[in-house]
Design goal:
Helix content: 25-40%
Order of helices and strands: EHEHEHEHEHEHEHEHEHHH
Shape: globular
Number of strands: 9
CATH class: Alpha Beta
Distance between the termini: 27 Å
Largest sheet: 6 strands, parallel
CATH superfamily: Metal-dependent hydrolases
Radius of gyration: 18 Å
Structural class: alpha/beta
């Protein structure tokens, strides 16, 4: 374990990996306490329950270093027991179709984060890639109320601006943008503008900052200094308690998976998202963040940028834990 992290809560607010022992060991050696793991993008209800079953097998196979977190106490216990806690999340509302009762069934299986939409329009809300963002629908409002009741975090990472503002206003509990960056850092359809960020903070919401190359200034050539400068600027804008890391790290996948993420089964054409060069491969990660344990580089970069150690640890995990306590 990284010595600096020995007594600290370190949380990555989102990863999507093709999980195996090597990846789990990297997180474990790197001192991570918990990771919010994406289970679903476009999968239907049946496929989503099967994904949960596969994770339950992983918890048995690797019980010496990972465990399932369904409440914040499980994260604290994981730290004491020297394990990495895994928190379940869906990056789309596709698994619940038009059935609000499915939310409680997924919650009972451990689901703790769900995005209202993944880029596209859903029955709940408008995605960030839609030319006309619908905002939150009647069904979406009902789903938000049910998520609030259960203790499931409303995630707006791939939602349109109107949907974000609607959800922040409608939710009785703070909402999250688990993996995105501010527009002032990198202008992207997926980046979050100042109005949304300030409204998010006013309602005690949270943003996890992304290390996915297409979300970064200069993409894979983004410097650690630029990333840490962005963190400091955002902290000045909305307050440190609303900021953490949601790396959106995608490890151990073949190239065809990146196209599946963009296309699912909703189009027969190829949708390249924001990629301008029709690239069908995974973008290059910055050299300073190629694996989960590289979160230590962000810690060191923040210290070098002038942030004190206590605040750096807030960004790397304790802020996430405090936010999650509001829900589960």
């Amino acid at each position: 374990m990284k010595e600096q992290f020995k007594n600290q809560i370190i949380i990555d607010g989102l990863q999507y990996c093709n999980w195996n022992r090597e990846i789990f060991e990297d997180l474990w050696r790197g001192g991570l306490t918990a990771v919010h793991a994406t289970l679903v993008y476009w999968e239907n209800t049946e496929e989503s329950f099967k994904k949960i079953d596969k994770w339950n097998d992983l918890f048995i196979q690797h019980k010496d270093i990972i465990c399932h977190a369904q409440k914040t106490q499980n994260i604290i216990e994981a730290k004491k027991n020297n394990k990495v806690a895994i928190i379940f999340g869906f990056q789309n509302s596709a698994p619940i179709a038009n059935d609000i009762f499915l939310l409680e069934k997924f919650f009972s299986k451990g689901l703790r984060f769900m995005q209202l939409t993944y880029n596209n329009q859903t029955p709940l809300a408008g995605g960030c890639f839609e030319p006309n963002d619908s905002g939150v629908s009647r069904f979406g409002h009902a789903v938000i109320e049910e998520m609030n009741r259960l203790g499931m975090i409303v995630d707006l990472s791939h939602a349109g601006k109107k949907t974000c503002l609607d959800a922040i206003s409608l939710s009785s509990k703070p909402v999250a943008i688990s993996h995105a960056n501010p527009q002032f850092f990198h202008k992207s359809i997926r980046s979050i503008d100042e109005e949304v960020l300030k409204n998010l903070a006013k309602k005690d919401g949270f943003i996890g900052l992304s290390l996915y190359p297409l979300h970064l200034k200069n993409h894979g050539d983004c410097t650690l200094e630029d990333f840490c400068s962005m963190i400091n600027q955002l902290v000045d804008m909305i307050g440190i308690e609303h900021v953490g890391i949601g790396s959106d790290l995608c490890k151990n996948w073949p190239d065809e998976i990146v196209m599946w993420m963009r296309n699912g089964k909703w189009t027969k054409k190829k949708d390249y998202g924001e990629s301008t060069n029709k690239d069908t491969s995974w973008p290059k990660q910055p050299a300073w963040f190629e694996k989960g344990s590289d979160i230590i580089n962000i810690f060191n970069g923040l210290l070098k940028s002038g942030m004190n150690e206590n605040d750096a640890f807030k960004i790397l995990g304790s802020n996430w834990l405090e936010f999650m306590k509001e829900h589960f």
